[in-house]
User: Which sequence fits this backbone?
């Protein structure tokens, strides 16, 4: 007969550094689509309001123990 003993395993904390391709959307007021693109490329849009739509190509770069 086998008995399984429950042992608490002390968990550690890790910080994971990763890279990915993120795709987002942001709203902008513009005269037309070309004006909107131009404002985007010139940095005239407040990207703090951008909404993340998803991620792909996730790659773990570094895992470090912090605790």
Assistant:
């Amino acid at each position: 007969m086998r008995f399984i003993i429950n042992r608490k395993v002390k968990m550690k904390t890790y910080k994971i550094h990763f890279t990915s391709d993120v795709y987002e959307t942001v709203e902008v007021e513009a005269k037309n689509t070309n004006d909107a693109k131009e404002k985007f490329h010139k940095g005239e849009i407040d990207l703090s309001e951008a909404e993340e739509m998803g991620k792909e190509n996730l790659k773990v770069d570094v895992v470090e123990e912090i605790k």
In short: The first strand starts at residue 14 and ends at 25.
